[in-house]
Amino acid sequence: MAVIVGVTRETAAGERRVALTPETCRKLTAAGAQVRIVPGLGVGAHFSDQAYADAGAVLDPQALAEADLVLCVQPPEPAVLATLKPGAVLVGMLHPQADPARAEAIRARGLIAFPLERLPRTTRAQAMDVLSSQAGMAGYKAMLIAAQLAPRFFPMLTTAAGTIRPSKVLVIGAGVAGLQAIATARRLGAQVEGFDVRPETREQIESLGGRFLDLGVSAVGEGGYARPLTEEERALQQQRLADHLKGIDVVVCTAAVPGRPAPRIISAAMVAGMKPGSVIVDLAAETGGNCELTRPGDTIDSNGVTVAGPLNLPSLGAIHASEMYARNLYNFALLLLKEGRLVFDWSDELLAKTVWPEPPSAA
């Protein structure tokens, strides 16, 4: 019997993305799977039921009940997990350790969970890397929000009333989100700088037309991520950054350390030293924020400086974010689908290092 693929309906507030698009539905069907979805699955991302049906999906209000492979964006609620087929495979951004009830529901049902945020960041895994694909959309949207909030033009303009200088934009953190934010600011015509404690990002920042802001602090870590700074390094970084921020119009913060709260980079004192009319958009708001004044989900005014902490930015670009995310999941699913059956090769590091809590025995 063909593997049955089911897709959860996203219920998190503001979530519009979907884990399956008509494109990936067609590909999964071609790979020998039977795809079942609940009616209205893709409404938030503007994918119609008819588009899914044309791609080979079966519309079924009880689509998850018999699913062997379940795809999701946000982690399903424990009550939903309890309804899944015992031993089913669950793939998505699951963060099981962040919620004891969720973790217990996965264990109690005997689900084989693949939280894709645990996927090794290797060359082979790039086509399955949900963190990177969604960070790109987040960085893009963060800069557009910054441009909207800023009480000034981004580009230099020559008008009958005189020349208007370009906005000075600083992007903190040069991962995927930060680099996309830099590229977006450049397209909008701003004068852009990028700051990261990893000196190897200089070339990437400059390749996008930005200037690398060197504060004399290096925190090269493992796996392409930054290590935590020492107290001395942090003090030096903050002193130099505070002085630099006095001349910046817009700051977009994107710095993150996986599995830990976002590093605190911009203090309240730094914000107080910025020019009235300046804007800070903190993309790291969901994990505590890079700015001390950030309030997740809110936009505040601090003595004339606007501080925004938007949440779930990829959902604002639901169509393209869903297309990228669904392709990530499809590429990962191909590691499991062999001739229409689910096969687990625990010698494959992408499976063994992603599965939670640990790889089942080969037997």
Detail the topology: elements first, then pairings.
Elements: E1 4-7, H1 22-30, E2 34-37, H2 49-54, E3 58-59, E4 69-71, H3 78-81, E5 89-92, H4 100-108, E6 112-115, H5 130-149, E7 157-159, E8 162-164, E9 168-172, H6 176-187, E10 191-195, H7 202-207, E11 211-212, H8 231-245, E12 250-253, H9 268-272, E13 279-282, E14 299-302, E15 305-308, H10 318-333, E16 337-338, E17 341-342, H11 349-352
Parallel strand pairs: 1-2, 1-4, 2-3, 4-5, 5-6, 9-10, 9-12, 10-11, 12-13, 13-15
Antiparallel strand pairs: 7-8, 14-15, 16-17
Helix pairs in contact: 1-10, 5-6, 5-10
Strand order of the largest sheet: 11-10-9-12-13-15-14
Classify the helix fraction into a percent range: 25-40%
Number of structurally distinct domains: 2
Beta-strand percentage range: 15-25%
| Span of the ends, CA to CA | 22 Å
Order of helices and strands: EHEHEEHEHEHEEEHEHEHEHEEEHEEH
Radius of gyration: 22 Å
- Can you tell me the CATH class of the largest domain? Alpha Beta
Give the overall shape, derived from the CA principal axes.
Answer: elongated
Helix/sheet category: alpha/beta
What would you give as the CATH superfamily of the largest domain?
NAD(P)-binding Rossmann-like Domain
List the total number of helices.
11
